[in-house]
Amino acid sequence: MIELHTHTTYSDGILSPQQLVERAAKAGVKALAITDHDTLHGWDEAIAAAIPYNIEIVPGVELSTVYNRRSLHILAYYPQRDLIEAPLSERLAGRKRRVYKMLDKLASMGYPLELSNIEGNMALCRPHIASAMVKAGYVDSTQEAFERFIGEDKPAYVHYEKFSAEEGIELIRSCGGVPVWAHPYLFRGGKVEEVLPVLVDAGLMGLEVFHPHHGNNKVNHLKRFCQQYGLLMTGGTDYHGYDLEHPENERWQLNQLNVPLSLLQPVKEAASV
């Protein structure tokens, strides 16, 4: 089985790339995509860790873009590293600027915070702020931090710096990668059937059909869209390691979707290596 959507400590995951690979091996994963937010830093460690387990590492990244002023994530598979690293460095810098702005907002509200890893090479994300708020005793859970302070349209939220979905797709294609719309039914800026044609016109090549938040009806809708537009199908659990904190939640179990290995080869063939 394959996992084409996972995160490590280089973005907002709980496990290091090596720990993620080890856990994937135990779960029976045969091909594992490392898709941290706006960074490739986890690739090399994952590739080295996968050798003893005979797991194929799929190089990837999850680009943070904006459509209708709402966050829209695009997965990129097999982008050429030498072409995409420089543009991503600006995305990482933008993430830091965004985090500083949110920290300033929180401080002005009476909730000053310090993030020890803010100058590192990881992709800073809102979960890092949420965890810091829990540690500081401002909230009881990361969920509360999002619901009260840093969720979209909440008082300390800051929008991504302008980087449109169309620009993200163009970047991925220009770097030889395969752009895939991540978890389409989590997008809050428009209906999937209305947004999809725009993204297809921009060069979108696939849809993340299988995802923990996609029930059978949504999966079937996405399959039909793939047939209609000639798009690739991918899937993954969007794994962050949360099952370590909440083992009772089956939605977060690695490889629990049993995505077939047969979906990977068309993605490989579509990449411009």
Structure report:
The protein has 273 residues and is of the alpha/beta class. The protein is built from nine helices and seven strands. The chain has a seven-stranded mixed sheet with strand order 1-2-3-4-5-6-7. Helix 2 (43-50) links the parallel strand 2 and strand 3. Helix 1 packs across helix 2 (43-50) and helix 4 crosses helix 5 (142-150). The longest helix is centred in the middle third of the chain and has 28 residues, at 81-108. The model has no long low-confidence stretch (mean pLDDT 91).
Question: How would you describe this structure in keywords?
Answer:
273 residues, 14% strand, alpha/beta, seven-stranded mixed beta sheet
**Biggest beta-sheet profile:** 7 strands, mixed
Q: Report helical residue fraction.
A: 25-40%
Report how far the terminal alpha carbons are from each other. 24 Å
Instruction: Kindly report the average pLDDT value.
Output: 91
Major sheet strand order: 1-2-3-4-5-6-7
- What portion of residues belong to β-strands? 5-15%
Number of helices: 9
Query: What spatial form do the alpha-carbon principal axes imply?
Result: globular
Report the radius of gyration as a whole number of Å.
Answer: 18 Å
Order of helices and strands: EHEHEEHHHHEHEHEH
Stretches where pLDDT is under 50 for at least 5 consecutive residues are none
Query: Could you say which structural class the secondary elements and strand pairing correspond to?
Result: alpha/beta
* Total beta strands: 7
